[in-house]
Amino acid sequence: MNAPASPVLSLEARYYTDPDIFKTEQDGVLARTWQFAGHVSQLENVGDYFAFSVAGQNLFCVRDKDGEIRTFYNVCQHRAHELVEGAGNAKLLVCPYHAWTYDLTGALRSGPNVKSVPGFDRTNICLTPVRSEEFCGFIFVNLDSDAACMDEWFPGVRRELSDFVPQIKSLKPIQWVEVSENCNWKVSIENYSECYHCQLNHPTFATGVVKPETYDIRPQGYCLRHTTECQNLDAMSYPVDLDANDFAGSYSSWFLWPLFSFQVYPGNVLNTYHWRLVDVDRVVVWRGWYTVNGEPSETIRDLARQDRETTVEEDIHLVESVHRGLKNRGYKPGPLVIDPRGGVASEHSILALQQWMREGVEL
Q1: What is the 3-state secondary structure (H, E, C) of 200-240?
Q2: What is the pLDDT of residues 91-108, one digit of tens each?
Q3: What pTM, to 2 d.p., does this model score?
Q4: Span 156-361: which CATH code?
């Protein structure tokens, strides 16, 4: 990789602490990028739905009678009441305010006394759709109807994931771990996107999962691709079958800008991160763990517990300290460590990430 001719300074503190910049991100980059909605296993049957939020907008996904997954803004077209809460199953979508009723394609079916309205034409009224894609069994949405498809944003990722986890289409989540962090979302994303700090701060991960000396992170479209070898088998913190497939002895992660990551631990163990923003100073990180058909697995549950008690807990302290430091008047952005050879001690992934962050607020 080519290194900059002179040192590149990290982002100024205001990018992380200014509420106006946070508002700009909500209206801008977060409304124009692919955001995780949920897993297809949440919509197994016709009429299954779940509600969620993206960029400050309330949305919901539903499976229609043709089996298609549709996403809509969660708002009735009559007087703006929200249509659904949480998750459930419905043959029709009935607004709880005035009982205006929509079918699963979003078209208005009926409403009390609407036929008394001169010129009323229900065929002109439907829920507002949101663009969505299924990606290896995961549902993503984009509020920008003109955005490029996910395969253009994240070239090669769909194929690579299928190679690393051949069973990915049959996976279901068995555990979600909710982690609250008192920091700006970008602080948490940056921490995830470099392993410069791993050997010093993550002893279990660095000695019982991966070989840090082989760790590297490279941009791949709007994806940051993490790659490394697994630790020696006698040092691994959980059992690994190297014969499972060609990639069973590797660790790889695909961070999809701006708020989601697929992570494959040695042994083809899929887990995920997704970030949900609360405000400029708070973010909730969700860790997902998966097995074939959602079958119970003590190995996966033990690994999830180990991860929460070690790496995740360690990261909470790191990112919250950084966020406090960004509000310290003594902080002046220092230079990123960009090694042309890449590797674990280089912050070239942060260089790419911070450029996307600048583009995101167009400052």
Answers
A1: HHCHHHHHHCECHHHCEEEEECCEEEEEEEECCHHHCCCCC
A2: 999 999 999 999 999 999
A3: 0.92
A4: 3.90.380.10
